[in-house]
Structure formats: C-alpha cells, structure tokens
Write the structure tokens for this entry.
Amino acid sequence: MEETEGSQINEYTGVDLTSISDEELVKICNLELPQSTRAYKILIRRYEGLIYNTCLKLLNNVEDAEEVAQDTFIQLFHKLHQFEGRSSFKTWLYRIVHNYCKNRISKQIRHRKGKDAVKEHADHFFADSFDDREKTERSELVNNTLDQLKDRDKEIIVLKFMSGLTIEEIANVLELGLSATKMRLYRALDAFKIAFERLNKEQVK
Amino acid sequence: MINDHTYQQEEVEFNKVFAKAGWAEIPLPNELRIQRIEEKALHELITKETIDFTFHSFGAVLGNFAAVFLSSNQPSPQDYKV
C-alpha cells in the first residue's frame, strides 16, 4: 500500500479516496467503520468548514455553531449506514444540519443568547485572515442584514448562497415542494434587498 | 418583487453581494475540530456498546438465576415417599 503526499490510497482497491464522489466514499466508510476512520475523516474534511460557517450564520453564536457542527458529524458517524442514496449525500447532510440548527434556535430563544460573540469573532477572523477592510465592512453589512430577517428567510439564503445548494436540493432539505421553496426564496431575497439597502444607506451616512 | 422571470438576473447580483462579503471563498477544514469529532464519535460508540453488553450480560445472568430458582422449588416425587 502506497501513500502519496496529499492523498490516501485505499488499501483494498487502490483508489485515491480524496478524488472519489461523496456517495462512493460513504460506501467505503460503511465498510471500514468503526475499525478505520480514514474515509470518514476525508468525508468530514470536505464539509467541515462549510457546515461550520453555515451554522455560524444561522445561529449567531460561535459555541453553538461548533457544537451543532460537531453533533452533525457525530450523527453522521452513527447513521451513515442509513444513507440509501435516494437524495445526494450533500442534501442528506444538510437535512441533519437543518434539524439540529432548528432545535438549537428554539433553545436560544428560550435562553436568549446574544449575537455579540459572533460579531467579535467574525470581525477578528476577517480582519486577521484577509486583512481587507472593505471585505470586513461588507461582511458586517451582510450579517447585520441577515439579522433583520426571519430565521427561515435567513436559513434559505444561507443554504442557497453560502452552502451552494440548488433550489431542488433546498426543497429536499426543508421537505417542501419545489414551488413553495422558490416562493420562500424569492420572498427572503426581497426582504434581504430592502433591509440591505436601508442598512447600506445608514452606513454611508 | 422577485419572480421566476427576474430571478436569474437577481441571482447574479446577489452572488456578487455575497462574494464581496467572502461567502464565495471555500473555508478550510479545521483539523482540531475534526480531531475532536472523531474522538467523541468513537467514545460514544464504545460507551453505547459497553452499556449494551452490560445489560445483555446482566439480563442473561438474571435469567439463569430465575431458572435455577424456579427449578429448585419444584416438588419432586421423592418428597412424598413414605
């Protein structure tokens, strides 16, 4: 068995695991878990950053975002054998994220968690990582705009434009019909536009 | 109001807005978080299997005790011989 730099060669089939599809990787995970977590870790690495960022946008709290992202991947570990391939793996994964985020938001409402922590974190992250003042300001404006929206509007915008899901995939995640999903997205974007333009004007002043 | 006809053009504009906010950049995975996920998942699996094994064994032991107890209480014909 060879291990080339930056890739993992599957000792059974000689396949480079980092280059195969999610669905094929799931099959290998089901064969290898729990004895080997190698394929599972490759699967997590593909989505970890994106899932964490999605949770952060939806939950507005760093601690909650880390916990929910962690819970999602642990749920994946225990339930991967239940993935039947009826939808794409990405859709299935985001359905888990959606359910965990929904529960956490209910909990947040009960405990009234603040948004200041993620604001500080976001500013710090962008200022240090990108050193781009314009991007930081724009990011703050977008975050403030999202905060003005209803949770379900914010969620559909994040799923579409951050997580990169198609409308069909979003319909699957949210368990809505295609028309209902489109309507929800269009209304969310209308609300975003209005709030964005208002906040942009206030910022300019 | 956005509708099916206007959506495609609007989507392009929204993508630009979000791209300027850094949304288009693919975030790197955090290796420390991944490590914690793996450890916690394996820990949960071990805990679950230990509990399952303990209850299964406990149940089997209880069952055997019950069988011994019930069979020892059965009167045998010898008891009534005069």
